[in-house]
Structures are given as structure tokens and as C-alpha cells.
């Protein structure tokens, strides 16, 4: 259903908005997560992605168990999830992206105006909006939805031959790769990873790819340690 909205700018601008009705997973409160039908809006400047697969992060579990993730407290229903991939169903005119393209979605949106952003450190933006986060009110809806609306710059194309359930690890893998890069040159070195959960095991994989000669993992969970061994740790 098309509609128009006037944006509050110095020059009068009318942008046509359209709506999509789809199902999504929303956290309402502690121990209250619902699968509901909802409407999402998109403009001619947005990318619409049909979600194919997503991973459950610890923060998603916290929103379910406690109605909060750290200092981010649910104040209204919010679509959870920020580790997801999908297929593009709509692109803006003139975009390098294509309908039918498989993409991983970067869940973060920096302001691009603060000191950190202007110095090239968008990852340290103090006003970062993160999909599936209740840090700000209104909250930013996440990716556990049939469709999501994102900016073109949030879309990272990948080879469609790679299974979606593998590419759903792209966001936590990016965290692991960042950690390995911060560790410096690892070629021929022994690496200890403390904590063999999903991020820890992905760090093992990233460290091995970076040339580490020996990988050691520590954890209290036998299940996690077994997975770490499968990832090459001793």
C-alpha cells in the first residue's frame, strides 16, 4: 500500500513509502517472545532483503531471559536478531546491488557525523544504531523477520554457492577476524583462546588462517572444548 511522507528538511521533500506485511519474531518482555505479523515501510532509497537464515546471539537470549541485554532494556516490542543473511528483493535505482543477489547484512549504522566517524573510526561511533538492539528508544528492529529494510551500504554480497547457514556466521566471524588482527603477527606462534563459545571457536579458525602454529583453548564446558578440538585446538 503506497503512501507519502514529508521529511522535515530545509527544502520540501516528498518521499513515497511502501509497506510490506510479513512475519517476524518480536521480544515483548522477559520470557515473552512472539511470532507476529507486522508491517514494514521502505522507500525508493532502501534495499529490501528476504531473510534466508540467522544466528542467535547471546544478546538475543538475554532479551528473552531478562527483557534486557546489559543496559539495553526493552521498552516496547522489538524484532530481535542481528546475525543474518538473505536475498535482495528490491534495490534503489542506480545501485550496484542486484535483485536476487545473496548478501550478508551489516547490522550497524554509524551516524557518519561525529568525531570518530569523520576520522574513519565508524566502529567507535557513539551514536551507533544496531539492529536488534534496545539501546535507544525507539529500538532498532533486527533481522528475525521474513523481510528487512536496510541501507545499500549495509549489504555485503557473497557467492550464492555458499550455504546461507554458513554465511549466517559472517557477523560473529568478523568479530573474530578483528580480534586476530588486533593480536598482530601470528605466523608460527602459539595462540591461547580463553573461552570456547561461538566467538572463541571462530577466533581459533581465524588464528589458524592467520598462520598460528598451535592453538590452545580453555573452557569449563566439555561440549565447548570438544567443538574447539574440532576447530583445531589442543
What does this structure look like?
The chain is of the alpha+beta class and 234 residues long. The chain has two domains: 17-162, Quinone Oxidoreductase, Chain A, domain 1, CATH 3.90.180.10; 184-231, Rossmann fold. The chain is built from six helices and 15 strands. It has helices at residues 58-66, 115-118, 164-167, 170-182, 198-209, 222-230, and strands at 3-7, 13-29, 32-43, 47-55, 68-69, 72-73, 78-79, 83-90, 102-105, 108-109, 129-130, 147-150, 155-157, 190-194, 214-218. It is globular and about 60 Å long. It starts with a strand and ends with a helix.
Mean pLDDT: 94
N-to-C terminal Cα separation, in Å? Answer: 57 Å
Radius of gyration: 20 Å
CATH superfamily of the largest domain: Medium-chain alcohol dehydrogenases, catalytic domain
Q: Would you list the SSEs in sequence order as H and E?
A: EEEEHEEEEEEHEEEHHEHEH
- pLDDT < 50 runs, ≥5 residues: none
The CATH first-level class of the largest domain comes to Alpha Beta
Keywords: Metal-binding, Oxidoreductase, Zinc
Organism: Salmonella enterica subsp. enterica serovar Brancaster
Cofactor: Zn(2+)
Domain Alcohol dehydrogenase-like N-terminal: 44-158
Give a short synopsis of this structure.
The chain is of the alpha+beta class and about 230 residues long. It has helices at about 60-65, 115-120, 165, 170-180, 200-210, 220-230, and strands at about 5, 15-30, 30-45, 45-55, 70, 70-75, 80, 85-90, 100-105, 110, 130, 145-150, 155, 190-195, 215-220. The model has no long low-confidence stretch (mean pLDDT about 95).
Amino acid at each position: 500500500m503506497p503512501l507519502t511522507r514529508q521529511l522535515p528538511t530545509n527544502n520540501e521533500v516528498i518521499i513515497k513509502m511502501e509497506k510490506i506485511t510479513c512475519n517476524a519474531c518480536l521480544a515483548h518482555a522477559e520470557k515473552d517472545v512472539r511470532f507476529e505479523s507486522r508491517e514494514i515501510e521502505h522507500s525508493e532509497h532502501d534495499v529490501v532483503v528476504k531473510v534466508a537464515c540467522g544466528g542467535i546471539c547471546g544478546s538475543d537470549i538475554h532479551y528473552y531471559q531478562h527483557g534486557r541485554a546489559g543496559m539495553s532494556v526493552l521498552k516496547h516490542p522489538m524484532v530481535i536478531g542481528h546475525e543474518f543473511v538473505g536475498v535482495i528483493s528490491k534495490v534503489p535505482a542506480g545501485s550496484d546491488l542486484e535483485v536476487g543477489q545473496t548478501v550478508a547484512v551489516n547490522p550497524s549504522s554509524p551516524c557518519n557525523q561525529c568525531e570518530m566517524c569523520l576520522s574513519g573510526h565508524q566502529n567507535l561511533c557513539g551514536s551507533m544504531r544496531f539492529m536488534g538492539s534496545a539501546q535507544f528508544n525507539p529500538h532498532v528492529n533486527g533481522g528475525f523477520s521474513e523481510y528487512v529494510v536496510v541501507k545499500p551500504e549495509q549489504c555485503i554480497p557473497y557467492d550464492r554457492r555458499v550455504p546461507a547457514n554458513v554465511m549466517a556466521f559472517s557477523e560473529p566471524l568478523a568479530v573474530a577476524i578483528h580480534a586476530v588482527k588486533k593480536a598482530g603477527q601470528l605466523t608460527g606462534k602459539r595462540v591461547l583462546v580463553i573461552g570456547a563459545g561461538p566467538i572463541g571457536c571462530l577466533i581459533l579458525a581465524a588464528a589458524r588462517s592467520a598462520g598460528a602454529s598451535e592453538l590452545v583453548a580453555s573452557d569449563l564446558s566439555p561440549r565447548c572444548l570438544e567443538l574447539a578440538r574440532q576447530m583445531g585446538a589442543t
